[in-house]
Amino acid sequence: MERSVVFVTGEYPPLRGGVGDCTARLGDALASRGWSVQVVTRPLPARTDDALPIREVSGWGWELRQALRELRSAGWGGVVHLQYQAGAFDLQGRIALLPVLAWPIPVVTTFHDLRVPYLFPKAGVLRWSALRWLARTSAAVVVTNLEDERVVRRWGVRSARLWRIPIGPNVPEPGSPIETRARLDLPFERPLVVFFGFRQADKGLETLFAAVARLPEPRPLVVLVGGEQPDARGARAGGSLAEAGAERVLAVDLGYRPAREVADLLAAAEAVVLPFRRGASWRNGTLVAALACGAAVVTTRPDDPSLLLPLRDGEHCRLVPPDDPAALARALAEMLARPELRDTLRAGARAVAAAFRWERIAARHEQLYEVVLGSPKRPR
């Protein structure tokens, strides 16, 4: 069996995005286990770290077919692994043809989200058909959370080809909280409430500011980490901080920061608030990163709380209803007033995050690839 994998991904570092970070970290973890790993992705800015071989393609048509043709001609016997996220592929639907274009090379597809591609005007139900086609023609399908697993099962993907493997943290182990505050010139006399992530409307930044505005003075300092992310057509995904209500609280916007600084900030904060408007999910890389850093996390409860298991309110984090500034303010006030509660949540976060270590995730992928490479080739 050839221990080789080619990742096809719409983003990769130094491009910013959770899918690119996860692909890079999974590739490094597999390489440390003896796998030969290559990456096919869009053109990148100048790189400083070329740990994995990269082939850049300007689109997902002819150049991608050429790369696959070269693998077949060389008698390559590995796995092509598609890291699918609609936005990372500019909502283009042609990437759904990858399993057919690569045949007889097996294609594994990880669905980082189930957002449908654009295709063409008034495509309607055909947009969902493209995702179902991709799932059904892949040799195996990976989902990162129970919610997506339930959807993919309804598409008719059998259990033998469906694997649930979580994403891991995209930040390293944090350093000293005291040194972090001093290095970033953050005041010691005020508690820190950190928001981490892109500024899309569904991240609930307005709810955070409204909640902090309800707290009595002296209020905590709100620290924003992460930048704005344009949507697939280049439009800004979220409004300005003024539109979010930041003028009513004391806030510092640090923008996009290196992974090491992000980890240090998450660990240094009295609270990390992730107020997702549709409820938290294990597909949220910011949640996984905060837990892995041992942060005291406040996030939002999904409609079905079982989707967040084994995460439990009061043990691993605090859970509040989405779009509820009053409930979020009460949870923050309790956490800021009770250091022992923060300590409990930090210990619980590290305990639950043990399942998201990259070495464990890489081992699961290795098991998956061995099953796929040991199976008979599926009909074209």
Gyration radius (Cα, Å) is 21 Å
Most strands sheet:
7 strands, parallel
- What is the helix tally? 13
Q: Strands of the largest sheet, in order across it?
A: 3-2-1-4-5-6-7
Total domain count: 2
CATH class placement of the largest domain: Alpha Beta
Number of separate strands? 13
Overall mean confidence score, pLDDT = 89
Distance between the termini: 22 Å
Tell me, what's the shape? Answer: elongated
Give the SSE order as H and E letters.
EHEEHEHEHEHEHEHEHEHEHEEHHH
Relevant CATH superfamily of the largest domain: Glycogen Phosphorylase B
CATH fold name of the largest domain: Rossmann fold
Structural class: alpha/beta
Gross CATH architecture of the largest domain = 3-Layer(aba) Sandwich
Instruction: Report helical residue fraction.
Output: 25-40%
Low confidence ranges? 230-240
- Strand residue percentage: 15-25%
List keywords for this structure.
380 residues, alpha/beta, Rossmann fold, 2 domains, 7-stranded parallel β-sheet, 13 strands, 16% strand, elongated
